[in-house]
């Protein structure tokens, strides 16, 4: 019963709720970033607790939800490649923020504020924790758990399609390009999990992508503060 409830929440309730909030006009001031970060971590944490209970009740092991340690072969090489790509992205994000033209810098700062990126050291520390919840938690829930639960009913590729569409929709709606890319990337991640049988390398990528953007935006805000202090 808990297994079906969690699957229903991930496939229907969470995506519909997120789409609803992202498309309706809301003139209320946004909550402080720290509160928004904590709210996201709390939701993911509670869902992971439900997943832990399901695994205990059904006797699922680490292998069943994609957490088997990578062995020699494709999963190991995927993990190594993901780690190298993560390092390159993080280094590149730090270098690119220093070379950004003024107009592009202003647009990036505004986009960072709107998207909830950290702007100071306290927010950055909390974001580092949040990104672990996001990268590990959503991979376990939308790839490891959903594919395990849905595959016996609708087949492997049906499960890939449903989990991809649901997770893409759970990113909300800004414009047709954004939601199309969200769904496409979610389908790609689910396919990567099916082909490799491992979530570890996907977790690394999932952590690296938002962290790269956060570091770049954070450095831009720090550079702006430094300029204002000197002027």
UniProtKB/TrEMBL annotation:
<dbReference type="GO" id="GO:0080120">
    <property type="term" value="P:CAAX-box protein maturation"/>
</dbReference>
<feature type="transmembrane region" description="Helical">
    <location>
        <begin position="127"/>
        <end position="148"/>
    </location>
</feature>
<keyword id="KW-0482">Metalloprotease</keyword>
<keyword id="KW-0378">Hydrolase</keyword>
<keyword id="KW-1133">Transmembrane helix</keyword>
<feature type="transmembrane region" description="Helical">
    <location>
        <begin position="44"/>
        <end position="62"/>
    </location>
</feature>
<protein>
    <submittedName>
        <fullName>CPBP family intramembrane metalloprotease</fullName>
    </submittedName>
</protein>
<feature type="transmembrane region" description="Helical">
    <location>
        <begin position="154"/>
        <end position="172"/>
    </location>
</feature>
<feature type="domain" description="CAAX prenyl protease 2/Lysostaphin resistance protein A-like">
    <location>
        <begin position="124"/>
        <end position="208"/>
    </location>
</feature>
<dbReference type="Pfam" id="PF02517">
    <property type="entry name" value="Rce1-like"/>
</dbReference>
<dbReference type="GO" id="GO:0008237">
    <property type="term" value="F:metallopeptidase activity"/>
</dbReference>
<dbReference type="GO" id="GO:0004175">
    <property type="term" value="F:endopeptidase activity"/>
</dbReference>
<keyword id="KW-0472">Membrane</keyword>
<dbReference type="GO" id="GO:0006508">
    <property type="term" value="P:proteolysis"/>
</dbReference>
<feature type="transmembrane region" description="Helical">
    <location>
        <begin position="74"/>
        <end position="95"/>
    </location>
</feature>
<keyword id="KW-0812">Transmembrane</keyword>
<keyword id="KW-0645">Protease</keyword>
<dbReference type="InterPro" id="IPR003675">
    <property type="entry name" value="Rce1/LyrA-like_dom"/>
</dbReference>
<feature type="transmembrane region" description="Helical">
    <location>
        <begin position="6"/>
        <end position="23"/>
    </location>
</feature>
